[in-house]
Specification:
The structure holds 2 protein chains of 2 kinds. Chain A is mainly beta. Chain A is built from no helices and 11 strands. Helices cover 0% and strands 54% of the residues of chain A. In chain B, strands 2, 4, 5, 6, 9, 10 and 11 form a 7-stranded mixed β-sheet that branches. A 4-stranded antiparallel β-sheet of chain B has the order 1-3-8-7, with no helix packed on it. Chain B starts with a strand and ends with a strand.
């Protein structure tokens, strides 16, 4: 089955700096890669996703890149703000296979003032 | 638009007792998932429903876990008997047809003592 690895496990940045979280996946059939933000006591919330026919996608301060050959994808957050502090999860799934998500282990992002 | 509703929010039980969790997905969403999130880890899929039918329960420990979605809307997940290692947050998610983005509920935090 699919295996998703995520790094780093913790990330501390200064407000206004950029943050980058990286994930690798094992199943070449995976073609859908969402990123979720989870705040304490809440369920995961989708912040951006990318499909395998696209190499990069951007939404305001958030961008995701995908390298299908290397089987890795990354989340980039620019101009970080304190409210970006949360746990971020990457995931992989096969559309057409029910979109069953395999999650990474999470990155605790802390944005310091 | 109302989100995915779950109850209860918290539950503490002794080992060998039984417990049930309830989920009401977003209206019109045909696909429903239950995930288990152990502290410090990413969510792990337990079971997927399409309407009232099970699509994938390969990761469900069927000797103690059961789930149903009798009318294709609400779903319940049951554990009987509970073990200490079942302590986790149980997340319910739904999407329109199994191919679109998944929306998560806030989860039920289970503590088995």
């Amino acid at each position: 089955g699919e295996n998703v690895e995520q790094h780093p496990s913790t990330l501390s940045v200064q407000e206004g700096d950029s943050a980058v979280i990286k994930c690798t996946y094992s199943d070449s059939a995976s073609n859908y890669f969402p990123w979720y933000k989870q705040e304490l006591g809440k369920g995961p919330q989708l912040i951006i996703d990318i499909r395998s026919n696209v190499g990069e996608k951007k939404d305001q301060r958030i961008a995701v890149t995908l390298n299908k050959t290397a089987k890795h994808f990354s989340l980039h957050i620019t101009e970080t703000q304190p409210e970006d502090s949360a746990v971020y999860f990457c995931a992989a799934a096969i559309t057409g296979g029910g979109n069953k998500l395999t999650f990474g282990t999470g990155t605790q992002l802390k944005v310091e003032l | 638009e109302a989100g995915v509703a779950q109850s209860p929010r918290y539950k503490i039980i002794e080992k060998r007792q039984s417990v049930a969790f309830w989920c009401n997905p977003i209206s019109g969403h045909a696909t429903l998932y239950w995930y288990q999130q152990i502290l410090g880890q990413g969510p792990k899929l337990l079971i997927q429903f399409q309407n009232n039918g099970v699509v994938d329960d390969s990761q469900l420990p069927k000797d103690r876990f059961s789930a149903e979605r009798l009318k294709g809307v609400d779903s319940t997940l049951k554990i009987q008997p509970a073990k200490l290692e079942d302590s986790a947050v149980y997340l319910c998610a739904s999407n329109l047809n199994g191919e679109t983005e998944a929306f998560f509920g806030q989860g039920t935090r289970l503590t088995v003592v």
